[in-house]
Structures are given as C-alpha cells and as structure tokens.
Write a structure and sequence with these properties.
Blueprint (H helix, E strand, L loop, with lengths): L1 H9 L1 H33 L8 E4 H11 L7 E4 L5 E4 L1 H18 L3 E8 L5 E7 L33 H11 L3 E6 L5 E7 L9
Parallel strand pairs: 2-4
Antiparallel strand pairs: 1-3, 4-5, 5-7, 6-7
InterPro entries: 2C_sensor_his_kinase, HATPase_C_sf, HATPase_dom, His_kinase_dom, Sig_transdc_His_kin-like_C
EC number: 2.7.13.3
Protein name: histidine kinase
C-alpha cells in the first residue's frame, strides 16, 4: 500500500486509477484482520456483551447457504432439521459463516451444512466439504491462531488463519465446542455443539 500510494503521488491523474483497486483490496483485508483481532481480544477478556437468547440455528444456517446460491465453483447445500441454541445471535451467525467460508475455500465441488438436535436437546451444526480433509495430527492445531495448513497458497487467497480460532472461542464462550472429523463427502467435517435453550417456548 505504501509503494502504491507513493507511486500515485508522483502522478495522481495517471497512476491513482491503476493502483486504487490494489489499495482498496488491502484496506479491506487489513480491516477484516483488525476486526478479527479485536473480537478475539474481547473473547479473551470475556467482554463479548451480546445477550444470549434462544436462536434458530437452522434458520441461520439456511440464510448462510442462501448467500452462496450463485457460487459457480462449489455447490453449497443445506440438509437438516429445526435446531435451537442458547447463544447470542451474532455469535451463531459468525460461527456458521466462518465454517462455510472455510469449507468453500477447501472444497472441490460440494459443501453440505446440516443442523439437528441431540438427545439432550443441544443444537448440532456440521459443515462438510469434499476437499482433501485434515490430517488427524493437525485437527487441534487448526484452531490455533494464525495457523494455515495450506501455506503453499498465495496470501491473496484465504484469510489470516484466524477464522477457525474465532469459531472455537465463540462456541466455547456460549458453552459449546467444535471439533474436526472425517467427512462422509471425503474431506473435513467441522461439528459444533451449542447448549439447548434455557426457555421452554416452542418455535
């Protein structure tokens, strides 16, 4: 960004239209990084103040899948049953979005998002992809901050290695957790559990 703006300063009329897209892209990436770091800092201090309430995890998952309806490279599908969780709504939305974004980056052709409820009433979310999967030895490390298992990729692709760390911190802040398993699709499955609602009202 410094080099681009220095170059544009020499001849703004000619150079700025050329370098502006690069500068804006890097500003977006830096803004996203700062937002992620601030969120992790709040979670570290347990200062994420969004109120917890019963949320429809299935509605959140379907809305996220709908966001990718026009995706050409990967088919993103939802298959599940109604599932309610005790969690701040922004927390549940961020968990789903981060996991779907991650799955799309690693999928070959397909991502499947599923919601259900276990026998104890806890909400369950799974996000499957048909990519290369994650070696068992890396399944805990993948949740560490700034870890990217695909270091061979260019920095312009993917994120900074914070997305999955945020998922785990958010899930645990709501009393749940996340783990990695083998996916029936052949790649990785990220499975999230969130507590059942404290209130007894129906949908």
């Amino acid at each position: 960004m410094q080099a681009a703006t220095d170059l544009a300063a020499l001849d703004p009329a000619e150079e700025w239209p050329v370098v502006a897209p690069t500068v804006r892209l890097e500003l977006d990436r830096m803004g996203a990084l700062i937002d992620d770091l601030l969120l992790l800092a709040r979670l570290d201090e347990r200062r994420d103040s969004a109120p917890e309430r019963a949320v429809d995890l299935d509605d959140i998952a379907q809305a996220e899948v709908g966001r990718w309806r026009s995706e050409q490279r990967v088919t993103v599908r939802y298959a599940g049953t109604p599932s309610r969780a005790q969690s701040p709504e922004p927390t549940a939305q961020r968990i789903v979005r981060n996991l779907v974004d991650n799955a799309i980056r690693h999928a070959e052709r397909e991502v499947l998002v599923t919601t259900t409820t276990d026998s104890a009433g806890a909400a369950l979310l799974t996000v499957d992809d048909d990519g290369r999967g994650i070696d068992p030895a890396d399944r805990e490390r993948v949740f560490d901050r700034f870890v990217r298992l695909d270091e061979g990729r260019s920095r312009g692709e993917g994120g900074f290695g914070l997305g999955l760390a945020i998922v785990r911190e958010l899930a645990r802040s709501s009393g749940g957790d996340v783990r990695v398993e083998d996916s029936p699709l052949g790649g990785a499955r990220f499975a999230v559990s969130l507590p059942r609602p404290q209130e007894s009202s129906s949908r």
